[in-house]
Amino acid sequence: MAEAASSIFGTLARVPEKAVSRTEDLHAALHVSDRPFIVRGLAADWPLVKAGKQSAKAARDYLVAKSRERPFVVSVGQPGGDGRLFYDESMDMNFRMMNAKLPEVFAQIDREEGQQNAHTIYLASIDMHDFFVGLHEDNQVDMGERQCLASIWMGTPTRIAAHNDFPDNLAFCAVGKRRFTLFPREQFRNLYLGPIDHTPAGRAVSMVDFHAPDFDRFPRFKEALDHALVAELEPGDALYIPSMWWHHVEGLSPFNVLVNYWWRETPRWMGQPESALQLAMLAIRDLPEDEKRHWRDMFDHYVFQNSDEAVAHIPEQARTVLGPLTPELASKLRTFLLRALSQ
């Protein structure tokens, strides 16, 4: 299995690197790039990175010292597993969720470190402000005017199936080593996505095991690999992942920490496109074919083309949601939808 994984990753194109010496250079690169790129050593001066270079235990002690006295959500896989947090054969999750304070979680990692039958332990997308005191302030980069969500991901070796996220993402390898395998947005058909409403972490994931791909079952995955990029990160390195790019993520060291910033270029009050997709499945997908064709035309007219022709005959003050959206109009539309869905 390891040989199969090595042969795949070794043949993929590499994510390009950018030299960033000033904050302005980073902002400019993020503004103009529509493809992933790596910045080596961008977080090399972080105290967390320096602690991790001393030892994994030093990194854990540093994190515990800054953690709040509150339960953390932790995913725990089977002992002796390969770190893949995924579905089991019955399409249930192959891990369980539990709550524990960070010293308790790390004490378990300490006890099992180096053992072949160790549990997979993973703390995913932990808000740095809510769960730590001073961690973000001491370990950050200047993101300018972007309104970012700062999260930290910690755990033993893990394999997270390929998925995508709506926001843009700047991810920092803080402790250990990470490997990302990335695919452009349009490759979703070749990644063989699983359920969209029953997922390991809220997003549809590729059903392909990247360490042992079954090309008989997933033949189009070969096409996806032709478009794939791979990024291998050392402590302090950063990776930019544009919105909706698919990424398979591996924590390769006995203990791994990732810090990431998520941000949107559109207002948060616009909501999640995924919600519209699921609502369309509820209301449109199972209609007769002729009705579905009609609604496809309606979506093109009002949503995807969204031309002046669609509203030119309506007085501007009367266009409501057919005109430019505002927070107030979005709130009214959300209220209407909630009332309609409750009937």
UniProtKB/TrEMBL annotation:
Gene3D superfamilies: Jelly Rolls. InterPro entries: Cupin_8 (IPR041667), JmjC_dom (IPR003347), RmlC-like_jellyroll (IPR014710). It holds the Pfam family Cupin_8. Signal peptide: none annotated. Residues 115-278 form the JmjC domain. PANTHER family: HYPOXIA-INDUCIBLE FACTOR 1 ALPHA INHIBITOR-RELATED, HYPOXIA-INDUCIBLE FACTOR 1-ALPHA INHIBITOR. This is Cupin-like domain-containing protein. It comes from Allosphingosinicella flava.
